[in-house]
Automatic annotation (TrEMBL):
Domain MobA-like NTP transferase: 7-163
Binding site for Mg(2+): D104
UniProt-listed Enzyme Commission number(s): 2.7.7.77
The protein's name in its UniProt record: Molybdenum cofactor guanylyltransferase
Record organism: Microvirga aerilata
Reaction equation(s) it catalyzes: Mo-molybdopterin + GTP + H(+) = Mo-molybdopterin guanine dinucleotide + diphosphate
Amino acid sequence: MRPPALGVILAGGLSRRMGGADKPLLTLGGLTLLEHVAQRLAPQCHGLILNANGDPSRFERTSIPIVPDSLSGRPGPLAGILAGLEWAATHCRGIEWIVSVPADTPFIPEDLVLRLQDARREAGLPLACAVSGAQVHHAIGLWPIRLQQDLRRAIAKEGMRRLGGWAALHGYAEAAWSAEPVDPFFNINTPEELAQAKALLRQEKVQ
């Protein structure tokens, strides 16, 4: 039996390439991107939280707890990981892991958490990140709560901003998926990519 994990949906960015639109609330096939991610991630996790900054009332339709960055200045996805680690440490007794997924990846696989845990255990490493094709997706990863203080220090004291850089310091396993016929970690950053995602759904290419 794999140890349970808290799912952390990352939505703390500014969505500049989407013209400032709130990406998690964009619709795809009748659901918001947030709903797509939550539906796929929730059955794999011991609860979900949403890391988002700004006015939380815009997410009033969701029952997922909204957790903003605990560090000011929006230092990027590392701050979202930190917020998730700290929230889990306070609210989730008995949970030792979080799994992070960006809110703009609506096609994440239904075996994501299982395979991240297996990859970490088999490699004997503390972290695991998803891979598709030749690309490592550091924002889609498995993170131990015991590293929360290390991460806070890295961001606040050392100026660390790159997820991959911090993960490499500790060593991470890679859990790989095929990118064909559809990359399960296809992420939506632009209006063109949203249109492409809609076309994939219409063509029923997404599992």
